[in-house]
Amino acid sequence: MILLKNSGEPIYQQIADQFRQDILTGRLKEGDYLPSIRGLASDLKISVITTMKAYEMLASEGLVTAVQGKGYYVNAQDQDMLKEQHLRKMEAALNEAIDAAEIAGLSENELKEILDSLIRLKREKI
């Protein structure tokens, strides 16, 4: 797990985001347990409270469930819900890219060309 301590984003948010990404992409599957709160806090050299806050965020989103004495495990994911979450994330990223392109003075065609190039590059890596 990579934490950016100088980032404007809180540590607990970074932890939750990385676990969310792992769950939504299938790297963490239904029934998998997250690292223990104390263990993760120790590994990352952060507060147990920070780790607990990240896990509680994931639980409030329905991604994980706490089991007394065992920790947090990954819930089954509804594929329609997963698709919707990915669409929202994609729309947010594309809106941010559109805003950046406008600030940079790029035309719509230039932005589309950049997107097409990135898609081609991604496919070549696969």
Distance between the termini: 23 Å
Helix/strand/pairing class, anyone?
mainly alpha
- Shape estimate: elongated
Give the SSE order as H and E letters. HHHEEHH
What's the story with the biggest beta sheet?
Answer: 2 strands, antiparallel
- Strand content of the residues, in percent? 5-15%
Query: Any idea what the CATH superfamily of the largest domain is called?
Result: Winged helix-like DNA-binding domain superfamily/Winged helix DNA-binding domain
Please identify, by name, the CATH architecture of the largest domain: Orthogonal Bundle
The order of strands across the largest sheet is 1-2
Number of helices: 5
CATH topology of the largest domain: Arc Repressor Mutant, subunit A
Name the helicity range: 55-70%
The whole-number mean of residue pLDDT values reads: 90
What is the domain total for the residues? 2
In total, the number of strands is 2
CATH domain class of the largest domain:
Mainly Alpha
Radius of gyration: 18 Å
Low-confidence stretches: none
